[in-house]
Amino acid sequence: MDFALWTMLDRTWDGALERARWAEAAGFRSYWYADHLMPSTKDGSTDPGDMLECWTVLAAIGASVPRLRLVSMVSPVSIHHPVLLAKRAVTTDQISGGRAVLGIGAGWQVNEHAGYGFELLEPGPRVKRFAEAIEIIHRLLRGERLTFDGKYYSMKEAPLSPRPVNGSLPILVGTGSPQMLRLTARFADEWNTWGDPDEVAVRTQRFLKACDLEGRDPASLRRSAQANIFYVRTAQERAKAEKQASPIPNRTLIGGAAELVEQIGRYRDLGIDEFAIGDYTFGETTQERTDKYAAFHADILTQLL
Prior knowledge:
Elements: E1 2-7, H1 13-25, E2 30-34, H2 54-64, E3 69-73, E4 75-76, H3 82-96, E5 100-105, H4 110-116, H5 123-141, E6 146-149, E7 154-158, E8 171-174, H6 178-187, E9 190-194, H7 197-214, E10 222-226, E11 228-231, H8 235-244, E12 252-255, H9 257-269, E13 274-278, H10 286-299
């Protein structure tokens, strides 16, 4: 099982580059970068905190760090037109020598949509718009000169050039819902989901059912997962982590080294190819996150790599 560093809180270029170089040296396979225009807030209010643009960062990382896969987690089609997403991904792929992964989603973050005036549709229409977007991206990335006439998008004889370095590039969808899982099975190359091992086991059964309904071999899709991770070494740290844990059930791992080695190892048994470790639970500053990641790597990941 591979590991990815998922950075959300490095809001400076120097911080993002430092994290990517550290991840590559530590043996991580991928560098994930959150695609949002502002930090999220619980009440939906706008947040003026710094937030770099995802694909610009990934392209710059690709030019500066030679090995990591570069993954958008995830680019919402409610904000980005699918043709622009495909073009950004291919450009990053060209810059990096074929390492781009286009993670896409239907969109969810209320404050950035409201603040900037992007329409966040109700769930049903939102999925239908996503269905058109992923089909367009899938077909363009595979070299089709595309004519498309949908409810949300239309185009005529649309090309995508240059092509990705390896002929196409992976499309990743992060989801657990039945409709989105079927679209993932139909058009994507990678499936991502949230949860602790028990939750991922349940979601994996839904994924397998969606593949069966679409006639897709599940082994042909790469699978990744993530959870909120709290590496604790004292009773006080454990109590603090339990208070900070996600209010969404079954999304959090809390433990010492031996506990986390056991819990993370279970994802491999579930068929997960890549597990992402977000830095947002590892401290408030770049240095704090670097130090905590180094300890996590030394005490836990070295036993799993």
